[in-house]
Amino acid sequence: MEKKPQFSGPRRPAGPPRPPRPAGSAPAPGQKNGRRGSDRNSKDPYVINEYIRAREVRLVGDNVEQGIYPIDKALRLAEKMELDLIEISPNAEPPVCRILDYQKFLYQQKKRQKEQKQKAAKVVVKEIRFGPQTDDHDYNFKLKHAIGFLKEGSKVKAYVFFRGRSILFKEQGEVLLLRFANDLEEYGKVEMMPVLEGKRMIIMISPLKAAPKKEQKEGKSKDQPKKETAPEDASASQGEE
Predict the structure, then answer these.
(1) Neighbour order of strands in the sheet with 56-60
(2) Would you say residue 220 lies in a domain?
(3) Which of 6-10, 30-34, 144-148 has the lowest mean pLDDT?
(4) Structure confidence at residue 26 (pLDDT)
(5) Could you give the angle at which helices 136-151 and 170-183 cross, rounded to 10 degrees?
(6) Which residue among 89, 124, 149, 162 is least packed, with the fewest CB closer than 10 Å?
């Protein structure tokens, strides 16, 4: 008599093994008092706390006694102060660290970078081209444009282009650029005197930012005496009558 094979149903395919429990799953010492411990993000720009691999570090800052400390002692100081140990100069020997609140430290760094970007604003340079024998009509037209550029805060790069044998008139081109700079004296200052570069003679003029304010103050001061003298003249005429 043949034995029927026992059928126990389809077996479940073996799934991938469970990943080991991460080391940071348990609360790291110091996390209760605000330290980040082992929850560091890979995008963080600085290495902090237990992620610092150096055996000893140099502590700097106003809130600690500066010097070289074993990493264990530096971590204990940070934990005692309820702050973070931040590696600010990893390439130094030993690495330089500070004990600060990490989130506040990042905020201050971002704020500082933003201020630096604002200070290093891009400077716009406007170019104005002349010929060595530019007539007065063309000159005045370009002078008007240069005044507008300087008022809006842009630099003006004016140059005389010498074509062919017109390079023989380079002295005439220099005189033209110096006249141009003199006519713009109220709106800009010469940053670079006329220089011959190949077939072009160039002069650079940067704007005077304080010029508009001075003009406004002078205009107000001129108006004030007129207002004050009016009633005095009126009273004098009444007394004479």
Answers:
(1) 47-48, 84-89, 96-100, 56-60, 67-70
(2) no
(3) 30-34
(4) 38
(5) 50
(6) 124
Q: What's the pTM value of the predicted model, to 2 decimals? A: 0.40
149 part of a folded domain: yes
3 state DSSP class of 197: strand
- Higher-confidence residue of 77 and 170: namely 77
| Contact yes or no for 57/71 (Cβ under 8 A) | yes
Residues pairing with 128 in the sheet: 158
- Single out the residue of 155, 132, 130, 139 nearest to residue 208, CA to CA: 155
Task: Please check whether residue 19 lies inside any domain of the structure.
Answer: no
- Residue 15 placed within a domain: no
Nearest to 49 by CA among 79, 26, 23, 20: 79
94 prior amide bond cis, ω within 30:
yes
Whether the CB-CB separation of 84 and 36 falls below 8 Å is answered with: yes
Residue pair 74/50 in contact by the 8 Å Cβ criterion? no
**Same domain, yes or no, for 50 and 72?**
yes
Q: Which two tokens stand for residue 161?
A: 């282009």
Q: Are 187 and 144 in contact (CB under 8 A)?
A: no
**Distance from C-alpha of 151 to C-alpha of 221, rounded to nearest angstrom:** 22
Kindly state the tokens that stand for 144. Answer: 């008007």
Retrieve residue 5's tokens. Answer: 């094979």
* Residue 112 CA to its chain's centroid (Å): 9
Q: What is the pLDDT of residues 217-226, one digit of tens each?
A: 455 555 555 4
pLDDT of 21 higher than 80 = no
Domain assignment of residue 139, given as a range: 125-212
